[in-house]
Amino acid sequence: MTHQLDDTDRALINRLQDDLPLTDRPFAAIGEALDLPESEVLSRLTRLREDGFITRFGPFFDAAALGGAFCLCAMSVPEADFETVVTKVNAHPEVAHNYEREHAFNMWFVLATENAEEIETVAREIEAETGIAVRRFPKEREFYIGFRVAA
Prior knowledge:
Elements: H1 7-16, H2 26-34, H3 38-50, E1 69-75, H4 82-90, E2 95-100, E3 107-113, H5 116-130, E4 135-138
Antiparallel strand pairs: 1-3, 1-4, 2-3
Helix pairs in contact: 2-3
């Protein structure tokens, strides 16, 4: 990491967790709200990503509302193989996010696919590639928590 967060970085991170303006130039609109030129918003966003302050910037889609499917999955991965397995799992574009946990199931991720059948297909591919069972936990109810993290 080559740089520390300043107050402007914090304001930008906090603002980016809200809705992105639906305009031709959303970063110009965000910059205007923060008294920054669009170019600085973009360069700060790039630097924040490169320095690891943010790991992902993009929309979250409700796969089911768009006709797709998603499923929470877990695996018990031997610690010595964890990095190899996480690389294989994350190589699948259907993997929305992946988290390591201190638990017998130490790798948790979400599969988001165009249809329910693809959940099974991708899970089986991951099992074949890793030799480890993928436990599937399909959604029974939806909870909206409006998660935000203050920078």
